[in-house]
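Supplementary Note 3. Input sequence used for the single-chain structure prediction.
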Amino acid sequence: MSDPVNPPPSTLRQAQTSHTEARILSAASQLFLARGYLATTLADVAEHASVGARTVYVRFGTKAALFARVVDVAIAGDTKPVPLLDRPEQQRPFTGPDANRRVAEFCHTTAQIMRRTGDLFAVAQEAAMVDPVLQANWQAGREGTRHSHRHFWERLADDGLLDSAVDTRWLIDTTTLLGGAETFLLARRMYRWSIPAYERWLVTSYRRLARLD
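The predicted structure, written as discrete structure tokens, is reproduced below.
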């Protein structure tokens, strides 16, 4: 017997909820980028998404929570409830016998995150100066960047692909600074780098610091 044509009510509700959330996130992203964080309200987002204001308040509670969700989705590239480091595309830098290739893959994933999220990072950086919640979120982002770099370099060392003479802790700290959102935004403002140019710089810097060249 084939599956029913109409999905069960719970599945319909989940689909409707996901669709509504996607509309809210899209509207919020557009407004945050166009107006900035401070000038955007939850009521504005609700109107732009063509949903009731209560829907936005119930789903997200605060503007800071909504903005955090917008940023998280941009970083991941979708709304799937899968931790960033558990995603298949994020696993490529941690496999393979060639250290240079792993570095290239790691820098590529970083560059793609900046491509999707760089403009939102600029909004967050400015808003964090006046909003304590966003300031805490910004710091959490820094810590997340360090966690991913520590995981990458320690895995490379454990696999015997990193020169034992390299100070791994120093390498983690230094590349975390280079690969952080603040450095990307500064480079974009100062040099007007494209994403490919930024990625090439990152690959070259990481390889030299790790003594892979």
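The domain at 1-81 is CATH 1.10.357.10 (Tetracycline Repressor; domain 2). The two ends are 61 Å apart (CA to CA).
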